[in-house]
Design a protein that fits this description.
With 447 residues, the chain is mainly beta. The protein is 6% helix and 42% strand. Bound molecules: copper (II) ion.
Length: 447
């Protein structure tokens, strides 16, 4: 029988955290009995407090990677007791820039909401299921060419408070560009390089890979990959809400959704007063025999908190209030959606995007535990029309998981996420080779 989703209930798994905790109490009592001092306990081993990590974090909490193409990404990391990995003070410095260009004050997961199709289970993995505590130790082989950093896990297993669980590495992504210059008959091509930063966190039978990918051209991809195992407890052959897994039609793995939220606090050029713009284009029918269909793009300046939905020909960007590129254009980052199945079952999952005015207690898109009582606890309630001076962006990406035979065993990683892409952050392609650096705007052939 599937368990009921009782408040405060934990997802069933092999070793419960409560069991580990009681084992640890036993250990520390034994240590006291042996005359050990409490200074030897896990609290004393804590290398740094989270608050001391950023901005201007110490070396242990700094990630700085100069990619072979000349672009440097810098950031601070810390580890939150619910959100897990948090990246702060993220900046980008392509080869032509003399200083780092600040992009984000903070980037983190905002919730992983997992409702089952039968209505009997509904999990809030970040705030209710010890996502952060179940940080997994990485094998050297799963951080190829990189470094695995040690993370002090808040409220983690006292027997293993430090987990080698944060991988930073680089990876090639194929062509960054290719161009055959027919005047010189030269082929310009470059292979793109990315910085990757990731952790693996176990929740129930699942393991979530939280991956941040920083490209040398300024694009950032954030993705969550679900792997591990299908939930052993969630098979229901009777109600028609699952898919037969295993021989015949006996065991039906219950279908469910993974609704992942990210919370991005932009700090473009060091200012939090980012402006938000929405663009919509309308394509007309052909106007006559000679003229084809036309498209007209309109910009809407968004000055108040809002809930937004993707639509074809619609996009948003966050515009710097402080900086311009060398062409005199305001720097901005565009939000690039990933594939999503928006889950309409809960008020906070009804929209693809929420932009809210910064409030330091609003950290999780649902079941937010950090505000005072009486403060609404989900992002849809915060997007109430207040004027935006320091916008915070919440992106909701849903995946409806109807299991398949191939999901066992282990389950292949299924990814969901989105990207942010620079728009006018630099005056040209940040990877432009020297020979082509003059080809900006309506250039003419050099004789
Ligand atoms: Cu799933």
């Amino acid at each position: 029988m599937p368990e009921k989703n009782l408040p405060g209930g934990a997802r069933p798994r092999a070793v419960s955290r409560a069991a580990r905790k009681s084992a640890a109490v036993g250990l520390s009592l034994a240590a006291l009995a042996a005359g050990a001092t409490t200074a030897a306990g896990p609290a004393a081993a804590r290398p740094q407090t989270a608050a001391a990590a950023a901005p201007g974090c110490s070396a242990a909490y700094r990630i700085e990677q100069k990619l072979s193409s000349g672009t440097t990404w810098r950031m601070c990391w810390r580890y939150d007791s619910k959100a897990g990995l948090v990246l702060e003070d993220v900046s980008y410095q392509p080869k032509g820039e003399t200083k780092p260009i600040k992009v984000l004050n903070s980037a983190r997961l905002g919730q992983i909401h997992v409702p089952y199709d039968d209505g009997k289970h509904e999990w809030s993995d970040l705030t209710g299921q010890d996502f952060a505590q179940e940080l997994q130790e990485l094998q050297p082989g799963e951080c190829p060419g990189g470094t695995i950093k040690t993370v002090k896990v808040p409220d983690g297993d006292p027997r293993h408070p430090n987990v080698k669980g944060l991988c930073t590495t680089t990876r090639s992504r194929g062509h960054a560009y290719r161009m055959h210059d027919f005047q010189s008959d030269k082929v310009y091509q470059q292979q793109g390089k990315d910085l990757l930063v990731y952790t693996v966190n176990q929740v129930g039978w699942y393991e979530y890979i939280t991956e941040w990918r920083f490209q040398d051209d300024g694009t950032v991809h954030m993705n969550v990959g679900a792997t591990g195992s299908l939930s052993w407890d969630d098979y229901n052959a009777q109600d028609g809400r699952g898919w037969p897994i295993g021989k015949g039609a006996r065991d039906y793995s219950t279908s469910h959704s993974h609704n992942v939220f990210w919370r991005l606090d932009f700090g473009l050029d060091g200012s939090s007063r980012t402006k938000v713009e929405q663009y919509d284009s309308k394509v007309s029918a052909p106007t006559g025999r000679q003229e084809g269909p036309t498209a007209k793009t309109t910009r809407t300046k968004v000055t108040k908190e809002f809930a937004g939905d993707y639509r074809t020909y619609r996009w948003w960007r966050m515009v710097s209030a402080a900086g311009k590129n060398k062409d005199g254009h305001a720097r901005s980052y565009e939000l690039v959606p990933g594939p999503t199945t928006k889950y309409p079952g809960r008020s906070f999952t009804k929209h693809d995007l929420y932009v809210t005015e910064y409030n330091k207690c609003e950290l999780f898109a649902s079941h937010n535990p950090t505000c005072t009582s009486g403060h609404p606890n989900s992002v849809d309630k915060w997007a109430g029309g207040q004027a935006l001076t320091h916008p915070v962006v919440w992106v909701n990406v849903g995946f409806h998981h109807i299991a398949r035979d191939e999901d066992q065993q282990p389950m292949p990683v299924h990814w969901q996420g989105f990207s942010i892409a620079p728009r006018d952050v630099t005056a040209m392609n940040p990877l432009t080779p020297k020979d082509l650096a003059w080809q900006n705007g309506h250039w003419e052939w050099r004789s």
